[in-house]
Amino acid sequence: MKSRTTQDPSGRVRGLEWGELERSLFEDGYALVPSFLSADECAMIRGWYAQDGLFRSHIVMERHNFGRGEYKYFAYPLPRFIEQLREAAYPPLAAIANRWLAAVGSAQRVPAALAQMLELCAEHEQRRPTALLLKYGPGDFNCLHQDIYGAIAFPFQLTFFLNKPHRDFEGGEFVLVEQRPRAQSRPEVLQPDLGDMLIFPNRYRPVRGRHGYYRTVVRHGVSRLRSGERYTLGLIFHDAR
Asked: What percent of the chain has pLDDT above 70?
């Protein structure tokens, strides 16, 4: 039997309780899947960071006032494991995204297949891959932001947590901030465990009010790491200019 390190993860993605994940996305604004990756898979992905040939660029956050820490964008072709994750997760997320868009009264819809989404990106001069591997050390943090990259932006993205909190690092909580119309912003602070997968919005989400759904703007970031080392894998379903 193959180890989970080398197995195609597509079956795991298809086997998720997508109805429950959709409920969580609508009600909470995010969905957490515990232990999606094995410890071996997390170690494998962390090890990619030292393999410069896998990446198209290296960003040091402090140079751009993004925070502190660093990340690398993967080059095409993506590692097969990442491509399998992205291809399997896109269709169910696209279906949820279109119901999400309908809820806020938007006429926009996203394509049903990842290949169509990437073709749409190319039509708008967005051809650079956006999957990325992030690395944080003591004192590092990530300012609140959105990962848009151009006119075409898929409503959801995924983050995979590759270290164990309170063993490998302290601090470094994942932060979602929802900017509500005519009200103060609402923060959500999460500390996912090793191997967890988080699904969250990259721009806005629908919130049910007294007169139906309304739209709130969502940004995400990472709080200051107090000690240790923290890696995450980010999967985004649209390309960059």
From this structure: 98
Quote the CA–CA distance of 213 and 115 in Å, as a whole number.
30
Reference 231, options 41, 54, 6; nearest CA is 41
DSSP-derived 3-state class of residue 148: coil
CA distance 98 to 131: 22
Range of the domain at 69: 11-236
Residue 23 lies in a domain: yes
CATH number at residue 153: 2.60.120.620
Number of domains the chain contains: 1
DSSP state of 182: T
pLDDT tens-digit map of 93-105: 999 999 999 998 8
Q: Is the Cα torsion angle 61, 62, 65, 66 positive or negative in sign?
A: positive
Nearby residues of 130 by Cβ (< 8 Å), 6 or more positions away:
73, 147, 149, 234, 236, 238, 239, 240
Region of poorest pLDDT, from 40-44, 64-68, 205-209, 216-220: 205-209
Distance CA 103, CA 125 (A): 29
Q: Is residue 115 part of a domain?
A: yes
Residue 64: inside a domain: yes
175 forms beta bridges with 189, 221
Instruction: Establish if 158 belongs to a structural domain.
Output: yes
171 beta partners: 225
Q: Are 186 and 229 in contact (CB under 8 A)?
A: no
Nearest alpha carbon to residue 168 among 199, 191, 143, 144:
191
Rounded to 5 degrees, what are φ and ψ at 72?
Answer: -130, 135
Residue 181's pLDDT band, with cuts at 50, 70 and 90, is: confident
Half-sphere exposure of 21 (CA within 13 A, CB side): 24
